[in-house]
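BUG: 3D viewer hangs when loading the predicted structure for this chain

Environment: internal workstation, default settings.
Expected: structure renders.
Actual: progress bar stalls at 90%.

Input used:
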Amino acid sequence: MTNPKHLFISYASEDMPLARWLAGKLAARGHALWFDKMKHLGGEPWPETIEETIKARTFRTLALVSDASLRKKKPALERMLAQRVVRQQNIPDFLIPLKLDGSETDPLLDMASAISFENGWINGWKTLRKELDAIHAPRSLDNGSALAALNFAPGRDLVNGTGERLFTNLIRVKSFSNVLRVFQAADDMEADEWEALEQAWTFHAITRDMLVALIPQPPEFSDRIRPTREILDCSKPGVFRHNRVQDLAAAVILQALARRLAMAGCSRHPVFKNVFFLSETMAENGHLEYAGFDGKNCRMPIRDKVAFRRLGETEINFHNFAFRLGVVRGADLSWYVQITPAVMFFDARGQAVDDKSALPRLRRLRRTWGNGEWLNRVLAAAHVVTGEPPAGVNDPVFEPGPVRLESPAGLEESILGSGATTARAELPAQEFELDEMEMEEADG
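C-alpha cells produced before the viewer hung:
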C-alpha cells in the first residue's frame, strides 16, 4: 500500500479500558484504525500479520506505554516493528508514545515526544488530537461515529445487580431555627466595626443598615445594633424587603459556616466569597487526614504544584485545597450544604492568582480529576466543614458526613477502568497549556 490511512493502536491487555476509549474517540473523529478489539473500524479486510499491518498499511502507530506494556511480548514486538519503519522509511514520528504512568521507558522509544495521559484521559486526548492534525493524519471514515457506537457495548455489561453505596456532595443540616430576627444597624459604622461584628456574631446584611440573625446582637454592639419587632418564619414561603425569606435563611447558614471555618483557620477567596481555602499550617505535615469512602484513613496534601504554559512561557503555580459552599433546601424541607471542590492558586512569589486567568487554570486542573479524586475531595471538604464546633449560640448543627444513598444496581468499575473508588494518590507535578480561547471565555 503506497498511501496508508490507518492508525495502529498498540497496548497491553491491562490497558484495555483506555485503548477502547481511545479507539472510539479516534473512530468517531473519522480516523481509520487497526485495533484488534474493534475489527470493523478500518474500512478494509483485517490484515493477516502484524508485520504487514505496521510496515505497509499504517499511517502512524500509537503505543500505549505503561508498566504492563513494557513487560508484555506483543506490545514490545509492535513497538520494535514500528521502530523499523522509522529507520527504513525515514518517518521520525511514525511511532507516537502515549505515556500512561511513571514506569521506566523502553530505550527504543523517544519519550521526549511522548504524549502524557498521566494527568487525565481528556488532557491526553486533546494533545493527541492536535498532534494528529499537525501531521495531517487522514480521516477517511465517513461513518466513524456509527461504527464506533456499534463496537462499544450498549451498557448492559456495565451494570450489575449487587448494588452499591453512593455519596452525594450534600451535607444535611441537622438542626436550624426557623425564626430569623431583624435588626437595624447604625448607618455610620466603620469598616473595622463591621469586621469585629462579623467575628463576634452570625448575621446576614440585607442592606448596610438592615440585618437578620438567629440570636440578639452581642452586648458590646447594643448601641450600634438595635432589634426591631419584625420576626421572619423561614419554614413558610415569604418575602421580606424584596428578598425571599428562605434565601435569607440560606445566607445565615452560610455565614455561620464562614465564621466556623475562619475560627478553624480557613481563609476566604478574595473574589469568590463562597470559596474557602486551607493553609498548610492547618494540618500536621501539610496533609489533611479524613475518612475515605470505605472508612479507611486517607491523606491529601493541602498544597500542590503545577506549571502552566501560555504564549511560549511557563509559569509555576501552587494551589491550595479549597471548596465552594452553597446552601439549598431539599424536597424534604431540610437544609443542605452543597460542596464543590476547587483550589486557590498562588504564583511563585506567594501572591494570590485572582484575576481572569484563575478560572481557566481551575478548569484545566479539574479536568484531570476522575471520579475518585472528586469523591475524595468532597469527603475531605466535608471533614473540614463538619469537624469544627459551632461558632455561636443557636448556630446550625450538621450531620457528620455527606448524604449517602443506596442503589439497587452498581457499575462494573473494572470495565470502565475509571479508578472511581481508588484512594487519593499524590500525583507528580502537572503541566498544562492555557490557550487564548479559554482566556477570552474567562474575560467574557
